[in-house]
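Troubleshooting log. The previous run stalled partway through. Resubmitting the same two chains, unchanged.
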Amino acid sequence: MHIVYPAVVSALLFSVGVYGVLARRNTILVLMSVELMLNAVNLNLVAFDVWLRDRLHSGQVLTLFVIVIAAAEVGLGLAIVLALYRNRRTVDLDHLRDLSEPADERPALLLSTTPAPLDNRQPAPALDGGRADDQSAERGGKP
Amino acid sequence: MTEAVPSYLSPTGQEIVFLLLGAVAVGSALLVVTTRQLVHAALWLVVSFGALAGGYLVLTAEFVAWVQVLIYVGAVVVLMLFGIMLTRAPIGRSADLDSGNRPVAAVVAVATAAVLVTVVIDGFRTAYTPLTPGHGAAKELGASVFATWVLPFEALSVLLLAALIGAIVLSRTDIPGSPPDETGGH
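Second attempt completed without errors. Output:
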């Protein structure tokens, strides 16, 4: 087996994952793309373990560890996404702009964000009057 | 590792099988990141991970292949499907799955692929190993995990426990002292 073959397949998988992370808006789809990138790394680890004929099998053992860490990451990531959905009624990454600079925010994006109870530690942007309307409008729009 | 490299023009059966599986994996991964239906993305992810597990089998890493099938196809994708259902995502075709920076993302991905493939082909053109089965069996891997890598293994179990507790704490809403659930009042 030429090692180039798994290495090239893994490089292509990784770039597909990069595209998914950058281009998708849904948070769960971004998590899926992260999984694709992790799998590309796993393929590399297995291929190089086989190539170097490691007596300790460090490549394959590290692959097992990466799989376990990916499972933990997906569990935690989905818990975060669900908490986000409970608070905001959306998992759309383009609408989650609370940590961006206020100067960058265009009025349309600012109006479409709904404040959560968790972030009342930070100074609130000056939009207190419109909050209730935004929330009810957004919730009515997304049943 | 240093013996004479066979020609690329006469691939062995193993290489042909691996390349076909790799093509399936990359193709279904492309469908994962381009499909317009959220549930189909999760199902194409199953195909991609399954093809990768087949690739591990061809590379004689049997145990990793079965772990891949069990954990990725069995657990991770099911968890993703749960996430899709619980966030009440649109089941059918939806137009707003891609953000506005799609062309930029395509450029970055193509550039990444070009750089990586060029470097990899340039660096490992002469790397060749004959595949001898048995080196990735559960017996050998288990001996290795529980002899050499037992400390990271135990650390990983603590990490899994921490992730479990974290996921429970994050997804419960009735923990005393936590901020009140905003959606409950509406």
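Takeaways: The two ends of chain A are 53 Å apart (CA to CA). DSSP finds five helices and no strands in chain A.
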